[in-house]
What we know:
CATH architecture of the domain at 83-224: 3-Layer(aba) Sandwich
CATH topology of the domain at 83-224: Rossmann fold
Largest sheet: 7 strands, mixed
Structural class: alpha/beta
Radius of gyration: 20 Å
Number of strands: 7
Strand order of the largest sheet: 1-2-7-6-3-4-5
Low-confidence stretches: 199-205
Strand content: 15-25%
Distance between the termini: 32 Å
Oligomer: single chain
Amino acid sequence: PFSVGTSEDAAAEIAEWCQGRSSVPVHLSVVKGAPAWEITAHGKDADLVVVGSSSEDVFSVGPTARRVARKASSHTLVVRRQPRVPYRRILVAVDFSEASRTGVETALEMFPDADVTLVYVLPARFDHMLAEAGLFQEEVEATRGRRMELAGERMDEFSRDWGDRVRTLVIDGPTMGALAETVRHRNADLVVASSRGATATRMVLLGTVAEGLLDAVPCDVLIARVRSAFRRP
């Protein structure tokens, strides 16, 4: 949808531009109202809602994109810059929960030809807690090594259903910083995260990891919407 302030000629030109770069039909809607609200309303039955990160700066996420990411009931793709080629290297943030499986399944379904890597970040906060509890540095490092080993075992179990369709990676550190570093190191062009994770309730629309990724990573972000059975009484 475009705002009513957009001239019909300009809107038609944009629609023609989109149609020339798409293999699916493009339909134009010019509506009046709050952009985020209208986009989510029009996209409530869509398989995917696509929104630009910002009209002013590709390095930031504007209020419209952020509101759409929070409110949309469909999978939501936040795009930072015009793509030149299909997504090739995709990272999927997982926490081994059933909810995070949605992100994996969505990535594999939408981008079957891409290289998909599942990434689990082991929180670093436990190291500080153990150090404050009086453990020696050698003990803290040994404990971290054991946690990494256990996380690797859980990742193997979690990813078993997808076999060689995915790669796996277990890292440690601050979640957002570690994911952003991995994106840069692997030159990923898309990060996928489920809309809620293991600690979220069914009423949570957007988990902290998914929302944090919008600001943390320099590439496009796909929020895989986890369906909920919750209904208002």
